[in-house]
Amino acid sequence: MTDAVSEARRVVLEWHVRPSLLTYMRGTPDFAATVEGGAEFTGEVVRLPAVRAGDGRLEATGAVELSGHGGALTLPLRGVVIEGDALWIDDPVGSGGRHRLVNLRPRAEGGAEGGAENGYDTTLAAESDILFLYSYLPDTSFGPLFVLDA
């Protein structure tokens, strides 16, 4: 594969995760943010490098894990895949499968400034409320997510 083709496949997933969740997590005494593979966490935004895998599928090549309360409250953004109308992560219980974290709906406003080709509004998937200790109900807004040129 040539460098030009490789560059064309690279994108960044920029997720403005629900501010109230991030504020709460950052306020826990044992808050920890782990970033890998070129990913970033700014305190307000998660940025994951990703590649286009075909058929509209995007696969993150980096990871971010945010945790507090001794790990009882965790946002495990590992193995992130955008496919169809969902953002999937590696199953947090280690079953080897995938877990639907949030639902995606194309934003009426489209992408963000600065090279975003498209954007999504995210809502918590029904099977993910347990990750947040049932503090957020399914379909709760979880912030906008943008696909940026790398």
Structural commentary:
The protein is mainly beta and 150 residues long. The chain has one domain. The protein is built from two helices and twelve strands. It has an eight-stranded antiparallel β-barrel with strand order 1-4-5-8-9-10-11-12. It has a three-stranded antiparallel beta sheet with strand order 2-6-7, with no helix packed on it. Strand 4 (46-54) and strand 5 (57-60) form a beta hairpin. The longest helix is centred in the first third of the chain and has 8 residues, at 19-26. It is globular, with a radius of gyration of 15 Å. The two termini are 17 Å apart. The mean pLDDT is 90.
Q: In percent, how helical is the residue content? A: 10-25%
Overall form: globular
The largest pleated sheet is described as: 8 strands, antiparallel, barrel
- Overall tally of domains: 1
**Count the helices. How many?**
2
Q: Could you tell me the radius of gyration in angstroms?
A: 15 Å
End-to-end span in angstroms? 17 Å
List the strand order in the largest sheet.
1-4-5-8-9-10-11-12
Provide mean pLDDT, rounded: 90
List the helices and strands in order: HEHEEEEEEEEEEE
Strand content bin: over 45%
- Number-wise, the strands total 12
**SS content category:** mainly beta
Low-confidence stretches: none
Protein topology:
Layout (H helix, E strand, L loop, with lengths): L2 H7 E6 L3 H8 L5 E5 L3 E2 L4 E9 L2 E4 L2 E6 L4 E5 L3 E3 L2 E5 L7 E9 L9 E9 L16 E9 L1
Antiparallel strand pairs: 1-4, 1-12, 2-6, 3-4, 4-5, 5-8, 6-7, 8-9, 9-10, 10-11, 11-12
